[in-house]
Amino acid sequence: MNFHESHHRQHVRSRGSARSFGFIVTAVFFLIGLAPLLDESPPRWWALAIAFTFAGIAIFWPRSLRRVNELWISFGLMLHKVMTPLVFGILFFGAVTPVALLMKIFRKDPLKRMFDLRADSYWIDRDPPGPDRKTMRDQF
Predict the structure, then answer these.
(1) How far is CA 60 from CA 29, 46, 65, in A?
(2) Left, alpha or beta for 83 (phi > 0: left; psi -120 to 50: alpha)?
(3) Nearest CA to 53 among 30, 80, 69, 37?
(4) 1, 8, 120, 121 — which has fewest CB within 10 A?
(5) Where is 127: in which H helix or E strand?
(6) Do the beta carbons of residue 68 and residue 53 sit within 8 Å?
(7) How many CB atoms lie under 10 A from the CB of residue 47?
(8) Is 13 exposed, middle or buried (CB count within 10 Å of its CB: 0-12, 13-18, 19+)?
(9) What is the DSSP letter of 130?
(10) How far is Cα 124 from Cα 51, in angstroms, rounded to an integer?
């Protein structure tokens, strides 16, 4: 079949550069190192040492971070495959299903899907009436 639009999934994942990965790790450890200053505690020197080490590596030798970056991305993809179904399952069975059951119990039908033999029409009259019919021409 020939469609005007391709429905094949060929997403190319762009992996961040090793240098940007190094700078992100630097920023995270820098924040971890300086966070105790908010409570007037001494900084975490070990985190600051890691931050400066990663900054130096990211600036002068970013190639060495390539493998660590690939491992980190692989870990993120694995975490995505586990956590996404888990979170959406909890969301569905914890929120959507109870609401649906309550609506069934209280016989609520907000979409008015039930068939009514006594109804002449399923048109819902609007009060006050909407815009004039002439305004609905050439909408696009």
Answers:
(1) 19, 21, 11
(2) alpha
(3) 30
(4) 1
(5) none
(6) no
(7) 18
(8) exposed
(9) -
(10) 64
Q: What angle do CA 68, 34, 62 make, to 5 degrees?
A: 25
Looking at residue 71, its amino acid is L
Q: Which residues contact 69 (CB under 8 A, 6 or more apart)?
A: 15, 16, 17, 18, 21
- CA neighbor of 48 nearest in space, from 25, 72, 17: 25
- Global pTM reads 0.60
Q: Both tokens of residue 31?
A: 């924040």
Q: Is 105 left (phi over 0), alpha (psi -120 to 50) or beta?
A: alpha
Is residue 34 within 8 A of residue 46, CB to CB? The reply is no
